[in-house]
Design brief:
Helix content is 82%, strand content 0%. It is mostly helical and 114 residues long. It has a domain of 35 residues. The N and C termini lie far apart (102 Å).
C-alpha cells in the first residue's frame, strides 16, 4: 500500500509540474507575449546599432584626421606653409574674380598642384 501511495504522489507531483510548465510555455507563445518580446528585441537591436554607429563615426573621424595630418606632413616641403593656413589667408583677402587666377595663386603659394 505504501508503494502505491508513493507512486500516486510521484504521479501527482509530475502532473502538477507539467501543467505549470505547460501554462508558462503557452503564455510565452501567445500573440501578445510574442509581440512584446519582438518589440523588446527591436529596441535592443536599435540601441546596439546606434551605439555601434556613434562609436564607428567618432573613431573613423579621428583616424581620418590623423591620417590626413600624416599625409599633409609627408607632402609639404620643409618651410612650406600648411594648406589650411594658406586657405585662411586667401579667404581674408578679396576673392579673385577669375577662378583660374585663384587656382594659379593657390598653386604658387602651396608650391604644388594636382
Amino acid at each position: 500500500m505504501t508503494r502505491r501511495l508513493f507512486w500516486v504522489g510521484v504521479g501527482v507531483t509530475i502532473t502538477v509540474v507539467v501543467i505549470q510548465r505547460g501554462r508558462r510555455l503557452v503564455a510565452r507563445y501567445t500573440p501578445e507575449a510574442v509581440a512584446e518580446r519582438a518589440g523588446d528585441l527591436g529596441r535592443d537591436v536599435s540601441r546596439r546599432a546606434e551605439t555601434f554607429l556613434t562609436t564607428f563615426r567618432s573613431e573613423f573621424a579621428a583616424a581620418r584626421a590623423s591620417r590626413e595630418d600624416e599625409l599633409v606632413a609627408a607632402l609639404l616641403a620643409e618651410g612650406q606653409p600648411h594648406p589650411d593656413d594658406v586657405e585662411r589667408t586667401r579667404r581674408g583677402r578679396h576673392a579673385a574674380v577669375d577662378p583660374e587666377a585663384a587656382t594659379r595663386a593657390d598653386e604658387d603659394e602651396l608650391g604644388y598642384s594636382f
